[in-house]
Design brief:
about 30% strand; globular; Immunoglobulin-like; about 15% helix; Jelly Rolls; about 600 residues; TIM Barrel; alpha+beta; 8-stranded parallel β-sheet; 3 domains
Length: about 600
């Protein structure tokens, strides 16, 4: 059961999970079922495990508020509900929300009766609507090709927590490794007094880095903290160069209190990493050093939980296994991942290209919903040092005529500039795959590697990845949209691989051969294919990274390095040996 604290980058000590057994109804006249939240009804772990026939579903449950919270305000949090919902507490509407990827919160204090509370969540998820952000969820009854089972309703945690009428609503950390500082911006609630104090305590590995109390006024404020300049307790240069990276995921712990004199309204535990990402001269730089990204496509699906991991440890295990195979990050695909995954990526050291579910049929209404939800994604995940890039769209999904349609080009460019405007500390790709407009990285997809025995195509791939002209013959659509051209950005292949191989378990040695294998041992054939593919990419002076498709098998997709139970299909050390053919970066100052 998913009963961990759902928001590990913004922790309050007192809270209560509302995950667990709820009553569930499909349609207006449906019989009552029971469902295990936060698993969607289409998943086995929900206890229902079947496709829906109605867009409308309903959740209900009873809960109690702990007696010791008396006198506090009570906030009700939803991690994510797909797609539209209204929330009712004791028959009164607490609020409505649209968007299946991002969290929302209601103050339900005035609706509580102080005894047994009734919570009702009415959801509408348009099962066949291609105009809303739906990602890889298929609009037909059964998944096929690259499309997966639909996921409706609550799919991330639900919880309540007590706060004073004065509390911290959010806090963002923007590190500057060149100046050795972190800029902290925050917002407090409407119930906060006109004057208040924010008490800040930053520590690194239990050693004090920066303590400060500032006088606040108004709902929003800013603090500039010197992170690398305080050497009083730990010696000269102790904090300097403690940069966050996959090799050294250093994190600074933060405790924040909102006070008025001796009266403490709110207390938050959080963290940040000193990390810089930028591009220059056709290369990606991490912490001012050229850095070669070795990524995996990660769709975040589980056989029994679909979009929701069965347990929080599953997120950490995926990252550990990817790193064991020599990868240093992932490109999340068509899904805003659970904050628990991002927390584990922060702790373990794993780069993340954040993604969001695409809409399919372009319209101003669909574009508006997509843009609004992306802005909430950036707000939610701003603090995670693991996120180095906002990956707005994939392979022209949602903008199918972007090559020569001015409106769709403007939309892609608007998404790029929106993300850049909301967050200047990360890179942005408007459209990953092809038909580039404005991007910080030119990210192309090609699976034209050449099957085993097709030496002519293998040679075309080998030579093609060394120039943009060569890539134009490998990528199935135009590299750039009409009117746009290469402007010196770093170039990566962010869609490669896609070789299918059946998992082999100890109790069953039978295995299915890779897609490009005609004879010999399946594992050896795959390793030969992988070594040839990665070797060709490493030999290209044009390319500065890759993303291999993909981490795990998903339903009918059998192209993962892990199977659908997220277990290795082959020796991780063999993949790692190939991946280590090129170093990610030069010598780190903090190595």
């Amino acid at each position: 059961m998913r009963n961990e604290y759902p928001r590990p980058d913004f922790v309050r000590e007192r809270w209560k999970s509302l995950n667990g057994t709820w009553d569930f109804y499909e349609g207006l006249r449906a019989r009552k079922l029971q469902i295990e939240v936060p698993f969607v009804p289409q998943s086995r772990l929900s206890g229902i495990g079947r496709n829906l026939t109605s867009d409308a579903i309903l959740y209900e449950r009873l809960f109690t508020v702990p007696k010791e919270w008396e006198g506090d305000r009570v906030l009700l949090h939803f991690g994510a509900v797909d797609y539209q919902c209204s929330v009712w507490v004791n028959g009164q509407c607490a609020g409505t929300h649209q968007g299946g990827q991002t969290p929302f919160t209601y103050d339900i204090t005035d609706f509580l009766n102080g005894v047994e509370e009734h919570l009702r969540v009415s959801v509408v998820d348009y099962l066949t609507d291609e105009g809303i952000p739906r990602g890889k969820q298929f609009w037909k009854e059964k998944g096929q090709s690259i499309w997966h089972t639909q996921s409706s309703g609550i799919w991330q945690s639900v919880w309540i927590e007590p706060v004073d009428k004065a509390y911290i609503e959010w806090m963002h950390f923007t590190p500057d490794i060149d100046k050795g500082t972190v800029e902290i911006t925050y917002q407090v609630s409407d119930g906060t007094p006109d004057t208040y104090q924010v008490e800040l305590d930053i520590q690194f590995q239990s050693c004090k880095v920066h303590t400060e109390t500032i006088e606040g006024k108004g709902r929003r404020g800013k603090i500039l903290a010197d992170v690398f300049g305080n050497h009083e307790l730990c010696g000269t240069f102790y904090f300097s160069h403690r940069y966050w990276s996959p090799e050294h995921p250093y994190l600074f712990d933060v405790k924040v209190k909102l006070k008025n004199g001796e009266n403490c309204f709110d207390s938050i535990s959080t963290y940040f990493g000193m990390r810089k990402i930028h591009v220059r001269d056709g290369k990606v730089y991490l912490n001012n050093q050229p850095y070669y990204q070795k990524l995996l496509l990660d769709q975040g699906y589980w056989k029994d939980g679909l979009m929701t991991a069965p347990d929080q440890e599953e997120y950490a295990e995926d990252i550990r296994k990817a790193k064991e195979m020599g990868f240093n990050g992932c490109r999340k695909h068509e899904k805003v991942e659970d904050p628990i995954f991002l927390y584990q990526a922060d702790k373990l050291g794993f780069l993340v290209w954040e993604s969001m579910a695409s809409f399919w049929s372009f319209s101003p209404q669909g574009g508006t919903a997509f843009a609004e939800e992306w802005s909430r994604v950036i707000q939610r995940d701003y603090n995670h040092p693991c996120i180095v890039l906002w990956n707005m769209m994939n392979e022209s999904w949602g903008v199918p005529r972007i090559y020569d349609d001015g409106q769709q080009q403007h939309f892609a460019r608007a998404m790029y500039h929106m993300a850049r405007g909301l967050d200047a500390s990360r890179l942005v790709i408007a459209n990953d795959g092809w038909e580039m407009t404005e991007n910080d990285i030119c990210a192309f997809h090609t699976y034209e590697h050449g099957e085993q025995g097709d030496t002519a195509q293998q040679e075309r791939f080998r030579t093609g990845v060394r120039s943009l002209e060569g890539l134009s013959g490998l990528v199935k659509r135009s590299l750039f949209a009409k009117g746009f051209s290469y402007e010196g950005q770093p170039v990566m292949l962010t869609g490669i691989g896609n070789a299918a191989m059946q998992a082999v378990h100890a109790e069953n040695a039978a295995e299915e051969e890779p897609a490009d294998r005609s004879h010999g041992d399946a594992r050896q054939a795959f390793l030969e294919f992988y070594e040839r593919l990665i070797g060709d990419i490493y030999d290209s002076e044009l390319l500065c990274g890759f993303c291999y498709t993909q981490l795990t098998d998903i339903e009918q997709e059998r192209n993962g390095l892990l199977d659908e139970m997220h277990q290795y299909k082959m020796d991780a050390a063999a993949i790692r040996r190939i991946n280590e053919g090129k170093k990610a970066a030069g010598t780190f100052l903090n190595a």
